[in-house]
Specification:
Elements: E1 2-3, E2 6-7, E3 57-58, E4 61-63, E5 74-82, E6 88-89, E7 100-107, E8 112-115, E9 117-119, E10 123-125, E11 138-141, H1 146-179, H2 181-187, H3 193-220
Parallel strand pairs: 4-10
Antiparallel strand pairs: 1-2, 3-4, 5-6, 5-7, 8-11, 9-10
Helix pairs in contact: 1-3, 2-3
């Protein structure tokens, strides 16, 4: 660019900013633009481990492994940061690439309410409906009455059924619309006619999908 008989040279330089974060996996830094920010080649991430109590009891009953998956609130009991190389350091120090943070959490014993199948030997196991193969067991934190558990189960099943019906209607509408798409493509180049045919296609297939969805729901009821 000439200014006053001279030349002005404009040099643009790209700058890249990388934020250091704690990650449970090794972040691939091979494609970083600034190769000075690469991770150490031998960096590793500690594996997350969970230790479970050998037995879960509820009153005088034992819970089967199928019911042990209920999660409760976790409580942090320790937090340590280790320098790259393994030396411990206070957690308030500036973290460096390669540092490792180890956090220990514990789930305390608590009261739960269970709706399950009672087996011989005072064992509670999940109950699966033989006809539908659906798990009907319920595990709730705290003391919950049987009426509240059943009401909650029925409400969740109702919302699930509504979601499946809406998804079925949407899929049927989309399928019918695609069937009539070639007709819309044939007249799309004609002003006004293309839009009118497309609108008629959407309304007609929507009504057809609605009626067919009602028939399907009544047959499956």
């Amino acid at each position: 660019e000439r200014l006053g008989g001279g030349r002005k040279r404009v040099v643009e330089q790209e700058k890249f900013h990388y934020t250091k974060i704690w990650s449970s996996r090794v972040i691939d830094s091979d494609n970083f633009k600034d190769q000075r920010k690469k991770n150490p080649p031998s960096i590793e991430v500690a594996e997350t481990k969970t230790w479970e109590a050998p037995a879960f009891t509820l009153g005088g009953y034992s819970l089967s492994p199928n019911l042990k998956s209920v999660k409760g609130p976790k409580r942090e009991i320790s937090r340590k940061v280790y320098k790259w190389g393994g030396d411990p350091k206070p957690s308030h120090d500036d973290r460096k690439i390669g540092d490792v943070r180890v956090i220990h959490n514990v789930v305390d014993a608590r009261e739960i309410s269970v709706l399950a199948l009672q087996k011989p030997g005072r064992i509670l196991d999940k109950y699966v409906d033989p006809s539908t193969k659906r798990n009907l067991s319920v595990v709730r934190n705290g003391v919950v009455s049987l009426e509240d558990i059943l009401e909650s189960k029925q409400t969740s099943q109702k919302y699930f059924a509504m979601l499946m019906r809406a998804a079925g209607f949407a899929m049927m509408w989309i399928g019918l619309s695609w069937m009539w798409q070639p007709l819309v493509d044939m007249v799309e180049f004609i002003p006004f006619v293309g839009g009118l045919v497309g609108f008629a296609r959407d309304v007609g297939t929507g009504l057809a999908a609605f009626v067919l969805s009602l028939i399907t729901i009544m047959l499956a009821w």
